[in-house]
Design brief:
Structural class: alpha/beta
Number of domains: 2
Order of helices and strands: EHEEHHEEHEEHEEEEHHEEHEEHEHHH
CATH topology of the largest domain: FAD/NAD(P)-binding domain
CATH class of the largest domain: Alpha Beta
Strand content: 15-25%
Helix content: 25-40%
Distance between the termini: 14 Å
Strand order of the largest sheet: 10-11-12-13-9-14
Largest sheet: 6 strands, antiparallel
Number of helices: 12
CATH architecture of the largest domain: 3-Layer(bba) Sandwich
Length: 432
């Protein structure tokens, strides 16, 4: 069987390598540490957890918990090792970072994965190839990736606005409309009067912010300036930006509001709405507190909080198939945060699917895609959906699941379908 080349020894790269190796395939995994460290990394071991030691909730009441359960059933090295190296954290799966990274590294070595410690600065000609270099891809390699994905399809920053669940928006206050009636009722608008606006701006400016680390201290693009930075530039500055009320009439008053916060539909299922222009560095608790001051969002539930930091990711909806193959060259697959998934387990999950598909390519089999009724399939469906016009990185949440019903029904359906999918893979390729 042909070898699979993998660039990147983070969570996605290691998960992909494990999936190939356990299926009987050969793997060469390239990792630049310790020859060179990114500004965020310090350990020589693979699968280093840079930010937190938490892999989020283990409860099936949470989308993160459902994702872990699906990954368990698909024999994920990341979830399996995390549980072996866990530390007490209630319903959260948290790990001893050093023990976790050491264990993953040793497991891959024992499985025969060839680990090459050198920096890759060009795209290898070998195929299949999995690129899983993460959000801090080196500048030189990022340039080469840009050349194969085409044009402006590679982003070097991550400006993310919060996303709220539609059913948590108070539609007795908010209203549907587009400015000047152009575009139908695509947007949900949260109107403010003068006093509400100034109270909001005051709290926005005094709220706690996440400090930028050295490798994140880049000038903000004018198109993604944090909402609190706009407020600091001048009391009325947001009124000429994302909070401008022009072209809108509040049906409750028959007048134009003093300010408006617009929410744009985020997915086909119409369950998630993006706070337009509200990229932010506020801490998560402060985002919840301050943004719930917005009329119509007083009980808002957040599927994703906003943030801005240095991040490299590709325009996956335009350039990737649902199987994580590059449309221009299907023998190249992408995985991890480079694809626009957010979170440790989300990154590992994409590596799991990329690894299975790289192995299937080696065996002459058709690549596969998890059912969209699973949280795994739902997230990959989102990040590769060509219908998305304003792509931003995403983490798992129940709003992504295709079919309706209660949360309990969604979980039951997802686990049934991931098990069925696993058996289908086993039936077509012994050992996966």
């Amino acid at each position: 069987m042909a070898e699979v080349f993998i660039i990147g020894g983070g969570l996605a790269g290691c998960e992909a390598a494990y999936q190939v190796a356990r299926g009987g395939g050969k793997v060469i995994l390239y990792e630049m540490k310790p020859v060179r460290f990114s500004p965020a990394h310090s350990s020589p071991f693979l699968c280093e957890l840079v930010c937190s030691n938490s892999l989020k909730s283990n409860s099936l009441e949470n989308a993160s918990g459902l994702l872990k359960e699906e990954m368990r059933r698909l024999d994920s090295i990341v979830v399996k090792t995390a549980e072996l190296t866990s530390v007490p954290a209630g319903k959260t799966l948290a790990v001893d970072r050093d023990a976790f990274s050491r264990a993953v590294t040793e497991t891959l070595k024992k499985m025969g994965v060839r680990i090459v410690r050198e920096e890759v600065v060009d795209i290898p000609s070998h195929r299949p190839l999995i690129i899983a270099t993460g959000p801090l891809t080196s500048e030189r390699l990022a340039g080469r990736i840009q050349s194969i994905v085409g044009g402006r399809s590679l982003y070097f920053y991550d400006a993310v606005s919060p996303i709220v669940y539609r059913d948590s928006i108070n539609m007795e206050v908010a209203f549907r409309a587009s400015r000047y009636g152009k575009g139908g009722d695509d947007y949900i608008n949260c109107p403010m009067d003068r006093d509400e606006y100034h109270r909001f701006i005051d709290e926005l400016k005094r709220a706690d912010k996440v400090p930028l680390r050295s490798f994140e201290r880049i000038p903000f693009f004018e198109g993604c300036v944090p909402i609190e930075t706009l407020a600091e530039r001048g009391e009325r500055t947001p009124l000429f930006g994302p909070m401008k009320p022009v072209g809108l009439i509040d049906p409750r008053t028959g007048k134009r509001p003093y300010a408006v916060v617009q929410l744009r539909r985020e997915n086909r299922e119409d369950t998630l709405y993006n706070m337009v222009g509200f990229q932010t560095r506020l801490t998560y608790p402060e985002q919840k507190r301050v943004f719930r001051m917005i009329p119509g969002l007083e009980n808002a539930e957040f599927a994703r909080f906003g943030k801005i930091h240095r991040n490299t990711y590709i325009d996956s909806p335009r350039i990737l198939k649902t199987t994580l193959q590059l449309k221009r060259d299907p023998s190249i697959l992408f995985a991890g945060q480079l694809t626009g998934v957010e979170g440790y387990c989300e990154s590992a999950m994409s590596g799991l699917v990329a690894g299975i598909n790289a192995l299937r390519l080696c065996a002459g089999l058709r690549p596969v895609f998890p059912p969209p009724t699973t949280i795994t399939g739902a997230l990959l469906r989102y990040v590769t959906d060509p219908g998305i016009k304003h792509f931003q990185p995403m983490n798992v949440n129940f709003g992504l699941l295709q079919e309706g019903g209660s949360k309990e029904k969604k979980v039951k359906r997802a686990l049934h379908d991931i098990e069925r999918w696993r058996k289908e893979i086993l039936a077509t390729f012994q050992g996966i």
